[in-house]
Structures are given as structure tokens and as C-alpha cells.
């Protein structure tokens, strides 16, 4: 027997899922900003041949921190963005694992990017639960309330 929740119970579940999703995206933003700050202190000051690569890495950390912060602020409005950042972290984790410990930084990358895959996937799942039968503002959609189903694509 299927029980359809509605009204206050649905709103509480949606708000809890949104808080979880926002919290996990916020955690990811803090981790990325911390990694950027740490990497910025490690930039070579001389005309090192890899200076551009290091600079690109620092800018990338802060860019992802900003993207994660945006996901934390509005976790239910950008499902495609969740998928893009999770895919990025999966690819980087896989590359780091394939390179193995002989390549400098691969163990750290596999650890941090792998952790972000788990954190972001959980956040994305929570954002989907928050959208399950609710609109962007957290209220049950009229179609879902009448039909007892998920939000329709036309809304």
C-alpha cells in the first residue's frame, strides 16, 4: 500500500532534504576554498616552468568553490550542474587512481576528489528528494496534490 504524504509532512520532508543538500554543497564549497587557499600559498614565486599550471589549479579551486556555493544557495534549481560537477570529480578521481602513487599529487587528488564524489552525490540525491513533489519554493505543486504523483514536467 502506498501512502502519499501531503501538506505539512511533505513540506517538512522537502525542507529537511533541502537543508541536507545545501549543507553538503556548502561543505564542498568550504573544502574547495580551503584547497585553493592552500594551493595559492604554494605558488612558485620565480619563473617556474609550471607557474601557469599552478595558477590554473588555484583558479579552478576557487571557481569550484563558487559553483558549490551556488548549489548550496539553490540546490533544487540546477540538477544539470550537479551532474556536471559530480562527473568532473569522478573523472579526476579515476585519473588519479590510474596514475597511481608514482605521480605526484595523485593520492591526494584521489582522496579529496573521491570524497567530493560521495558528498556531492549525497547532496544531489537530497536535492532530488526536495524536488520530488514540490516546486522550487517548497510548496506542493497543484498537479502533484491532485494526482498524488511527482511534479509534472510541464510545470
What report would you give on this structure?
- With 155 residues, this protein is mainly α.
- It has one domain.
- It contains 5 helices and no strands.
- The radius of gyration is 19 Å and the shape is elongated.
Short descriptors:
single chain; 155 residues; elongated; 5 helices; disordered C terminus; 0% strand; mainly alpha
Low-pLDDT stretches: 142-147, 149-155
Number of strands: 0
Helix/strand/pairing category: mainly alpha
* Sheet of most strands: none
Count, helices: 5
Helix and strand pattern = HHHHH
- How far apart the termini lie comes to 28 Å
Average the pLDDT over all residues and give the rounded result. 82
Number of domains: 1
Overall, the morphology is elongated
Question: Helical amount among residues, as a percent range?
Answer: over 70%
Percent of sequence in beta strands: under 5%
Q: Radius of gyration in whole Å, from Cα?
A: 19 Å
Provide a concise account of the structure shown:
The protein is an all-alpha fold and 155 residues long.
Lay out the secondary structure.
Blueprint: H1 7-41, H2 51-73, H3 79-99, H4 106-131, H5 142-147
Amino acid at each position: 500500500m502506498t501512502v502519499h504524504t501531503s501538506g505539512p509532512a511533505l513540506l517538512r520532508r522537502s525542507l529537511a532534504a533541502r537543508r541536507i543538500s545545501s549543507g553538503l554543497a556548502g561543505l564542498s564549497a568550504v573544502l574547495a576554498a580551503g584547497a585553493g587557499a592552500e594551493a595559492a600559498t604554494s605558488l612558485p614565486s620565480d619563473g617556474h616552468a609550471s607557474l601557469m599550471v599552478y595558477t590554473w589549479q588555484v583558479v579552478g579551486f576557487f571557481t569550484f568553490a563558487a559553483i558549490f556555493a551556488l548549489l548550496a544557495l539553490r540546490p533544487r534549481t540546477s540538477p544539470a550542474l550537479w551532474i556536471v560537477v559530480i562527473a568532473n570529480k569522478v573523472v579526476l578521481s579515476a585519473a588519479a587512481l590510474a596514475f597511481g602513487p608514482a605521480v605526484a599529487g595523485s593520492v591526494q587528488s584521489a582522496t579529496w576528489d573521491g570524497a567530493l564524489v560521495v558528498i556531492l552525490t549525497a547532496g544531489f540525491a537530497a536535492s532530488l528528494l526536495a524536488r520530488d513533489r514540490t516546486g522550487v519554493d517548497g510548496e506542493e505543486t497543484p498537479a502533484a496534490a491532485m494526482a498524488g504523483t511527482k511534479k509534472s514536467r510541464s510545470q
